[in-house]
């Protein structure tokens, strides 16, 4: 088997908080997390609000809050992601698709935003290709974010994040609040990236989205990886799922109201 693109082992994230006077206390954010994402694989990370999903993304990207302390190891393509290495690979080999289109600069035309980080000599050519890939007409390049529809803005986000050199894409909640068709479009773009060999870490609390694109689903609770499931196991009444917590999540979906043993199941 080839080397994973991303390998996280024994990751700990904790926060130092000031208590009374000068005393400090440490609150855990992530504890002992191990996971790997292979080339061309979409790994979904699923978990309730506050379970540590965004912290995982921030730990990889090196953008944790200042009061965070970390332990463990994060390997990207076999070597450690040190701060120096991050400055070389972020935006080039590792890209981040943020949750919200508000991360776009309201004061800069979207075409210029797509060119950021690209080699000046090829930037405009690459920008055109990315626009074509994400179904954005060329004249849109001169527009500002507030002049575009929500759907176009999400496609601009992809165009700003995706580069030929990218090997790992981290998408943090790319689908909440979107109608079904828009969700499907975002998932299709993630699938296309994976097919082209990119490793995709999809952070979400949308089980159905996770299961429809990912091969494996990592389930987090309170900062720990509770279970690693195959997406295929999220089917029927969830009997194929390895861990009861994954079964609970699956069965709590409104369309999965099963009645085991004759009793109605409610979340
Ligand atoms: N700077 C901080 N200081 C202390 N605790 C923090 C800090 N930042 C985050 N946390 C805590 O870390 C925990 C995990 O947060 P995280 O944002 O990773 O959750 P999440 O799984 O992404 O949730 P959501 O689905 O709502 O985005 C939360 O309980 C949060 O309160
Ligand atoms: Ni989050």
Automatic annotation (TrEMBL):
The protein's assembly and partners: The complex is composed of two ATP-binding proteins (NikD and NikE), two transmembrane proteins (NikB and NikC) and a solute-binding protein (NikA).
Cell compartment(s), UniProt: Cell membrane
Catalytic activity: Ni(2+)(out) + ATP + H2O = Ni(2+)(in) + ADP + phosphate + H(+)
Domain ABC transporter span(s) in chain numbering: 8-247
Gene Ontology molecular function terms on file: ABC-type nickel transporter activity; ATP binding; ATP hydrolysis activity
EC number: 7.2.2.11
Keyword Acetylation: no
GO cellular component, one term: plasma membrane
Transmembrane segments: none
The organism's place on the tree of life at top rank: Bacteria
Alphabetical list of InterPro entries matching this protein: AAA+_ATPase, ABC_Ni/Peptide_Import, ABC_transporter-like_ATP-bd, ABC_transporter-like_CS, P-loop_NTPase
Protein name: Nickel import system ATP-binding protein NikD
Short name of one Pfam family: ABC_tran
Keywords per UniProt: ATP-binding, Cell membrane, Ion transport, Membrane, Nickel, Nickel transport, Nucleotide-binding, Translocase, Transport
Species of provenance: Acrocarpospora phusangensis
Membrane association type: Peripheral membrane protein
Family as reported in the entry's similarity comment: Belongs to the ABC transporter superfamily.
Keyword ATP-binding: yes
Family annotation (PROSITE patterns): ABC_TRANSPORTER_1, ABC_TRANSPORTER_2
């Amino acid at each position: 088997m080839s080397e994973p693109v991303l390998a996280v082992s024994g990751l700990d994230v904790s926060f130092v908080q000031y208590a009374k006077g000068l005393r400090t206390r440490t609150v855990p954010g992530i504890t002992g997390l191990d996971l790997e994402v292979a080339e061309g694989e979409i790994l979904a990370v699923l978990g309730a609000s506050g379970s540590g999903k965004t912290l995982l993304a921030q730990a990889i990207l090196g953008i944790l809050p200042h009061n965070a302390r970390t332990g463990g190891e994060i390997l990207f393509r076999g070597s450690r992601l040190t701060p120096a290495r991050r400055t070389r690979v972020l935006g080039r080999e590792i890209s981040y698709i943020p949750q919200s289109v508000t991360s776009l600069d309201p004061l800069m035309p979207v075409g210029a935003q797509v060119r950021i980080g690209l080699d000046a000599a090829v930037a405009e050519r690459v920008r055109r290709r990315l626009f074509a890939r994400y179904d954005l007409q060329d004249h849109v390049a001169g527009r500002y974010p507030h002049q575009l529809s929500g759907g176009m803005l999400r496609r601009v986000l992809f165009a700003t994040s995706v580069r030929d050199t990218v090997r790992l894409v981290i998408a943090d909640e790319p689908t909440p609040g979107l109608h079904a068709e828009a969700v499907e479009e975002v998932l299709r773009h993630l699938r296309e990236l994976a097919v082209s060999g990119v490793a995709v870490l999809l952070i979400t609390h949308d089980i159905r989205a996770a299961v429809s694109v990912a091969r494996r689903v990592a389930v987090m609770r309170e900062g720990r990886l509770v279970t690693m499931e195959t997406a295929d196991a999220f089917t029927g009444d969830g009997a194929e799922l390895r861990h009861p917590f994954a079964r609970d999540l699956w069965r709590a979906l409104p369309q999965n109201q099963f009645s085991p043993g004759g009793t109605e199941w409610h979340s």
